[in-house]
User: Which sequence fits this backbone?
């Protein structure tokens, strides 16, 4: 059983950057594809990005493509989300999650979730 903890959220101005971290404990993350999701108030949880277990392949939502970069350091058991050119519509609680099913984008396939970290982008 793996536990996930996100950090790095905060308040940033539009056009700015922020880097989120997701630290795993209890089990190594190197057998899991890892995803980032976000949820704004009153909205459904939506897919942001996913990275393969080895870190060799990534998939992004169209809304963040070219602005966000997902990466991982398996030696540190940590996954990252670098967010650049942030927009007010990026404001949400961001969650990391683990899956045993490869690079899937639906949250229903993820078995472990972090507690979330708030990202607020002001205009």
Assistant:
């Amino acid at each position: 059983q793996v536990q996930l903890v996100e950090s790095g959220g905060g308040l940033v101005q539009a056009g700015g950057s922020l880097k989120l971290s997701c630290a795993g404990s209890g089990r190594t993350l190197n057998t899991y594809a890892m995803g980032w999701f976000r949820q704004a108030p009153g909205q459904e949880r939506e897919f942001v990005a996913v990275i393969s277990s080895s870190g060799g392949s990534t998939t992004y939502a169209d809304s963040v493509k070219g602005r966000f970069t997902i990466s991982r350091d398996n030696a540190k058991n940590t996954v990252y989300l670098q967010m650049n050119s942030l927009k007010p519509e990026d404001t949400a609680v961001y969650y990391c999650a683990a899956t045993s099913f490869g690079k899937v984008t639906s949250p229903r396939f993820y078995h472990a979730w972090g507690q979330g970290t708030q990202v607020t982008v002001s205009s």
Q: What stands out?
A: The radius of gyration is 13 Å. DSSP finds no helices and eleven strands in the chain. The CA atoms of residues 41 and 92 lie 7 Å apart.
